[in-house]
Amino acid sequence: MAKHFCYKLSLVPRLFRSEDWTKKDIETVSIHFSYLKDLLARKILFLAGRTVHEPMTDRDFGIAILEVDTMEEAREIMENDPAIKCGIMTGELFEFSLPLFRN
């Protein structure tokens, strides 16, 4: 039976202000979003979202909640997230309990 895992995404400090983003950074986020959309279509991603502030701070974050069988699967998905692979975000993985949610 599948379990839930959450990875927390944190933006690197050099990107807290939107005016500091390069074209490559913007492209990477677009690829990251496509990666998450693919996981959603494959019913691996349960939900994803982020805090919304401008400028961003070290308190802001995004989350991706996954539905997979093992921590190893979840870690592989997190580590292959383009935003993490390209170094514009860091990730931290947690096993996640999801006892209540709206259908």
State the main characteristics:
single chain; 103 residues; alpha+beta; 4-stranded antiparallel β-sheet; 3 helices; 31% helix; globular
Description of the molecule:
With 103 residues, this protein is α+β, with helices and mostly antiparallel strands. 31% of the residues lie in helices and 28% in strands. The chain has three helices and four strands; from the N terminus they run E-H-E-E-H-H-E. The chain has helices spanning 23-41, 71-79, 82-85, and strands at 3-11, 45-50, 62-68, 89-95. Strands 2-3-1-4 form a four-stranded antiparallel β-sheet. The relative contact order is 0.31.
Please, what is the average pLDDT? 94
Taking strands numbered 1, 2, ... along the chain, how are they ordered across the largest sheet?
A: 2-3-1-4
Question: Largest beta sheet, briefly?
Answer: 4 strands, antiparallel
Oligomer: single chain
Can you give the helix content as a percent range? 25-40%
Topology:
Blueprint: E1 3-11, H1 23-41, E2 45-50, E3 62-68, H2 71-79, H3 82-85, E4 89-95
Antiparallel strand pairs: 1-3, 1-4, 2-3
Summarize the structure.
The chain is α+β, with helices and mostly antiparallel strands and 103 residues long.
